[in-house]
Amino acid sequence: MSIIWTTWKQVPLWVRLCLSVSSLLLIVLTAFVASNGFLVLLCFWMYLRPFSFVHSDAAAKPFSFCLPGYRDSARVGILVDAVLIGLAYAAFGVRLILPEQSFSSIAAGRALMWFLLGFVISLLWAPPGFFTVVAPLDAVLSIAFAIGVMMAMWVVVWHSLLFWLVVALTGVVVCVCVWWRLRDARGVACRHRRIIKETMEKQAQIGVERTVPSWAGDLLLARAERKTPLGTWWCIWAGLYRAFGPVLCYWKEAVTMALVMSVVLGLAGRAVAEVAFASMGLIAAFVDPPARSTMLLPGGRRERHYATLVAPIATTLLLLVMAAGMAILSEIVAMRFGPSAERSGVRLGSAWLACVFVPWIFALKPCRFGPFRITRRSTPILLVILALLVFRRFVPDAQMRMFVYAVAGLCGWVLFLLVLKYACTDGCLAGSDVRAGERE
Amino acid sequence: MSDNGLMVQIRGLSKAFDEVQALHGVDLDVGRGRIIGLLGANGAGKSTLLRHIIGLYLPDAGTCTTLGCDAAKLGPAELARIGYVHQEGELIDWMKVKQLIRYVSVYYPKWNQQLQERCIAEYEISLNARVGSLSPGQRQRLAILIAICFEPELLILDEPAAALDPLARAQFLDLLLEMIQDQNRTIIISSHILSDVEKVIDHAVIMKAGRIITDCAFDELREKYTRVRLTALAGPLPETLDFANVLDCRRSDSEATLTVRGLSPEQIETAAARIKCQADIQPLPLEDIYKIVVSQ
After folding, report:
1. How many CB contacts within 8 angstroms connect chain A with chain B?
2. Chain B residues in contact with A206 (beta carbon < 8 A)
3. Smallest Cα–Cα separation from A82: which of A158, A29, A149?
4. Distance between CA B157 and CA B134 in Å, rounded?
5. pLDDT in tens, A217-259
6. Chain A residues touching chain B at CB-CB below 8 Å
7. Is the ipTM of this complex over 0.85?
């Protein structure tokens, strides 16, 4: 069975419209609920998820895939995954607009138990992405979505007959799935392995689909040309062009996003600031340092070392400038439109968080050649955002959090320097497919 | 270049990737002006060896000296003299072709603009196409272009023609033959298309399971293995054909085709005359020689 990997453009128009409209609605709603404002960014990122999950066929005719006779469990798995994610979005949307008092820990615990059970058993049904060691981070994210689903279901239907109906239906579905899976366990597992491999390979091929603007060449390559031929600075400038090219391909989107985020920051309040700025590290995920490449250019290990060292430094500076600009703009928005309590300049103070996770992302980049090589670029930063949300819950003291962020940033730089030194002095500068039986 | 006139000198090179031993104590000398064919099955260790030469891999044991410098410490000056085309054709996908050519040309003080234009015309490379949207064949052509336009002294071609169609392969071969005219240029070519390789190489290195099993001049290799067609001058062929070192024999009543090793034309003629046969001596194609060497 072949699987058609779905890109944003392939998703049917109505799905795109629904997601876009609901996404915007969610952001607007969240923007006016200051206490829960930090969730807006999580929701925003989560909205990006189905674009890489929803199978185009499944999206076009979702109910057909639930009919008897469709034993193509991978497709159903994808649909289940998509539904879970969709419910999670709904959960967060509802969570954001409901008052805090409507939650009770006991009820939440029950909901958690029921839906965790449902989710774990649905994992046995093998949605793509769970049964592969190459995307463990995606599995973590997906479990987070499941928790979102639980919360949503509890918020929406708790204390009503509907809740028990949902539980009963879930139970039936789970039983059917287990029975179905047990009937053809080996065949299903075999198909899944192949499909997961295919999808992950295709996913890995999804890259930048644009070309770098010509002014970037004039800006960076022209500088290289002015330096001593084959000197270190020559290599560094040319390396910067190569490193930042994928980001510069999307510079218009980056600027637009920064403007939108500034407005959201201004409206949503200080609670959003930490996550918003930290999430800017996503840009670093798109910077490609030239340390490891089989395209041979006259840059030795030393030059690759320097060029790769300069890339996160330049990224840090770029992010700091962007974050400062966003903070200033958001203060202006807050002063003009936001609640009076939020006019405190706290956003500018949080702007440095934009660069905290940059060294971590660069330190992890060489791992793309290892078992993580086919995970998405955005995965590390999505995890960071989730971690931040959890961290905020457990450490309410802002000063303590800032201290931890600073320590994390410093540790990140140390780790990055160690990884870089190893990669450029002692490591292989190209990947090897020897494990696949290809000694060459 | 090193004092002993060698472009590449490898001694006792070993490399393992986890449990897989990719190279076992490889020794190799590559003299200036040589055109070396590096032959071997998939997994023989050819690409690993080539990547050691340009410093992408570091050896577990042994040494690799390229252009007189430890391959691990190759600097811009040395690397600017080495061209490398590899089988995966890694290029920068988010650039347009013309942007990639500009980006690469920036690195090289000597960039042959005429050669670039000629390659673009011959290979029909679209300058405004996005590199990531090129077909495998077009990518390979582009990879060849950027590896040769700075006229490297040492050109390393790792399966350069694997993705090329027959026409493009012929063009590439013509270009390679032209490049060979430069006496100072050293080329190491690894390819499975042996019929192409044998037109250009003057030295053959055959690898098997991470070891070099043959390293000699191509002419020497061709002289070593010969195909002899024997035709009986009167009557049928004798029961026993009195030839030494016969590797293969196919015969009918009056004709026989032998593959022999290590016999000079004179020795063959003498042996044929002894059994009253006419001997027609033919050189073996590289593909057959390769099969014989690898199977031994």
Report:
1. 135
2. none
3. A149
4. 20
5. 777 777 777 777 777 787 788 888 888 888 888 888 788 878 8
6. 207-212, 214, 217, 221, 224-225, 229-231, 234-235, 238, 241-242, 245-246, 249, 293-303, 426-430, 432, 434-435, 437-440
7. no
